[in-house]
Write a structure and sequence with these properties.
The protein is an alpha/beta fold. The chain has 2 domains: about 5-125 and about 160-175, Rossmann fold (3-Layer(aba) Sandwich); about 125-155, no CATH class. About 40% of the residues lie in helices and about 20% in strands. The chain has helices at about 15-30, 65-75, 75-80, 90-95, 95-110, 130-145, 160-170, and strands at about 5-10, 30-35, 50-60, 85-90, 115-120, 125, 155. The strands form 2 sheets. It has a 5-stranded parallel sheet, with helices on both faces. A two-stranded antiparallel ribbon has the order 6-7. The N and C termini lie close together (about 5 Å). It binds flavin mononucleotide. Flavin mononucleotide binds near residues 15, 61, 90, 92 and 124.
């Protein structure tokens, strides 16, 4: 069975959960899956030995991480030679889908990468896990967007069935390899 690398960047940890869910789904189908967190300190990336690459990242302050974009740009030839997919995790994916798509288009354009799949997933709003300054900042952001402002609880908006469908769609063409 083909080997798949899942590379992800997360700040508060939710993108890691999405990446783990994708990894589990693919492993259950028999694929060899490696899960790697992209290191902001400038990690190396070796795509040899992988037939497929899935990259995931969350949006903060209107953008995906610059360190991940730079890493993908550096490896764009190797990415172009493989089946690849990108998923983006944000609150916009729930409240402002057009904005979420725009973040993705800009990130991919600047990375010089055209994956076969690009998907946005609604993320999480874990008020209880934020330090006080972040909780207030998020309350302001989310309140302006008309979202959930009850800070006594955490929210998770991810469509896990949608995540499973994304993984299935990625794997289908690899089945023949
Ligand atoms: C400080 C901060 C800024 C954020 N900025 C945005 C934003 O500009 N647009 C957006 O759609 N979501 C934004 N979010 C929401 C995150 O994308 C969402 O919580 C996501 O689940 C975080 O994923 P992670 O835990 O993998 O980092 C922000 C969240 C935080 C805490």
């Amino acid at each position: 069975m083909a080997g798949i690398l899942i590379l992800y960047a997360t700040i508060e940890g939710h993108t890691a959960r999405v990446a783990e869910r994708i990894a589990k789904g693919l492993r259950d189908k028999g694929y060899r899956v490696d899960l790697h967190r992209a290191d902001p300190a400038g990690a190396s990336l070796d795509l040899a030995g992988y037939e497929g690459v899935i990259v995931g990242a969350s949006v903060h302050y209107g953008r995906h991480p610059g360190h991940l974009r730079a890493l993908l740009r550096k490896h764009r030839a190797a990415l172009a030679a493989r089946r690849s997919a990108f998923f983006s995790v944000s609150l916009s994916a729930r409240h402002k889908p057009a904005a979420a798509q725009r973040y993705v288009r800009k990130f991919l354009r600047r990375a010089g990468w055209q994956p076969q799949q690009a998907q946005t997933f609604a993320g999480a709003l874990p008020y209880s896990k934020y330090p006080a300054w972040k909780r207030l900042l998020m309350l302001a952001f989310v309140g302006l967007a008309g979202g959930d402002t009850d800070m006594s609880r955490d929210y998770e908006y991810t469509d896990w069935d949608g995540v499973d469908r994304f993984a299935d769609a990625f794997a289908r063409p690899l089945d023949a390899i």
